[in-house]
Structure prediction request, 222 residues.
Amino acid sequence: MKTTCIFLGICLICFACQKEPAATKINSDIPADEKMLYPITHDVTTEDVVYPPYILSGPRNIRVRVAALPTVLVTALGQALNNYNVLQLKLQFSLVNTTADITLQGRVMDSSILAVSGYPSQDKPYPTITVNTGPHGLLNPANAGIVRRVIQHELGHCIGLLHPDRNVLRPCGPPTETPLPVINVPGMPGGLDTLSLMLRCNPGNVFSPRDIQLLKWMYGRP
Prediction:
């Protein structure tokens, strides 16, 4: 399907316990003709929502490699992958040294950015997670406690997870992401999941119960 619409979304990762130089910039393609198939049913996305074209077919193994990064980032990636695998989803993750579906790479970026990723396209996960390896990035000792959660958050985007607070005014700033033709997930509670790891503002440290319920709805085994 030819992509006819491109959007750039910015998500800020802030934590209540400390002020972080934290932002995750996300860009991805949105097929314009999908909007007719999946009309927006709710204007305020404070409930658990999905954009169906971002849901990958399964079951499958997603191979993830690390491109010349320090051990601390490799270790954090392994922990993040395990946190997905223990859910026993149709998607399973493997850390590889050769051809991969997702590559964790580093680059010196602006001090307000911790990591950059994107959303699936053409039934493939977003192919890169780029972490900030600059002085204010994930290798800064002050950010040691959030490395795994940032990588786990970005992996979520790579397989189609959105921000629950994507269109909500939050302490970390006003909404900046282009609205998607999302649908509400059946059976999920209403209101904002303030514990979600996928929040753009004050995300949780681990998957919340609703994060897990959402992942199992998207990728649960029959």
The CA atoms of residues 89 and 220 lie 5 Å apart. The helical segments are 34-37, 71-85, 147-158, 209-219. The chain is about 20% helix and 20% strand. The longest strand covers residues 6-12.
